[in-house]
Amino acid sequence: MIFGRRKRQEAEAVVEDVAVEDTDVATADDAGAGDATSEADEAMEKAEAQWLAWDEAFDREEGPFDIAEVDLDADDVQRLDLGPLIVTPFEGMSLQLQVNKQQVPQALLVQDGKSGIEVAVFGAPSRSAYIPEVRREMIAATRSVQGMRMTIRKGPFGTEILRAVPVQDANGNVGMQITRTWFAEGPSWVVRGVVFGKAALEPDDEDATIAIEEFFANLVVRRGDAPVAPGAVIPFKLPEQPQAQG
User: Fold this and answer.
1) Beta strands 220-221 and 65-66: pairing type?
2) Which string of b and e fits 10-28 if b means at least 16 CB within 10 Å?
3) Distance CA 88, CA 71 (A)
4) Residue 178 placed within a domain
5) Radius of gyration of the chain (CA)
6) What domain range is 68 assigned to?
7) CATH of the domain at 191
8) Strand 18-19 and strand 105-111: pairing?
9) How far is the C-alpha of 49 from the C-alpha of 54, rounded, in Å?
10) pLDDT tens-place values along the chain, 246 residues long
């Protein structure tokens, strides 16, 4: 495979997680609300500086890739071409396209039995980093949902977002669904991966995460020249059926 990726030496530097809850702003009715707001703003600025540093330290030379950065004819691996996204399969992988109400494929769901990842590709500005803006929107959305919690930490693809979302089963039992969100940004595109299952519950277990990490790293984005607004989903194309062999 042309996308062989070295194992990341995460154990060399353990960085303390930054929890978004630590920077919540006190209500205006509280005594000293102005001081609390100022301290919260300063804490958020410090946290954002750390998140940007983690983003900048991530080397996309190990993937995910832009189509202009790779030669897909350099090996004989059979990949799945979804138009804007080219996928390298792995052993034991199950794959499902997720469609909107108009039956347009907008996300890809991949599982390996114990873990899974939902992948989508979005438009992005050509002259500025877009991930920090997306991250701020996710923080705001998380704060608006009662009971939802978020932690932002260093991950295998720069800054990653861990979220715990309250869920209720058919019997009315309430639990928490844990996910990890990865981002990678290329020329006018952002690819997002939302990880769930064991790879989300045990993010430091290499055996649980390696297949999902390798899958995300081996993605190839074919953005195309069509105009796409920043943040707009770039829909996938259904793969062509292989020709029957004689």
Assistant:
1) parallel
2) eeeeeeeebebeebebeee
3) 13
4) yes
5) 20
6) 60-221
7) 3.40.1000
8) unpaired
9) 9
10) 444 433 333 333 333 344 544 333 233 344 455 666 788 788 888 999 999 999 999 989 999 999 999 999 888 889 999 999 999 998 889 999 999 999 999 999 999 989 999 999 999 998 889 999 999 999 988 888 888 899 999 999 999 999 998 888 888 888 899 999 999 999 999 999 999 999 999 999 999 999 999 999 999 999 999 999 999 999 999 876 544 332
Task: Specify the residue for token string 């999902």.
Answer: 212
- The single residue listed with the structure tokens 């990842």 is 117
Nearest to 229 by CA among 190, 198, 194, 192: 190
Distance CA 106, CA 194 (A): 14
User: What's the token pair of residue 87?
Assistant: 């996928």
Where does residue 188 fall: left (phi above 0), alpha (psi -120 to 50 degrees), or beta otherwise?
left
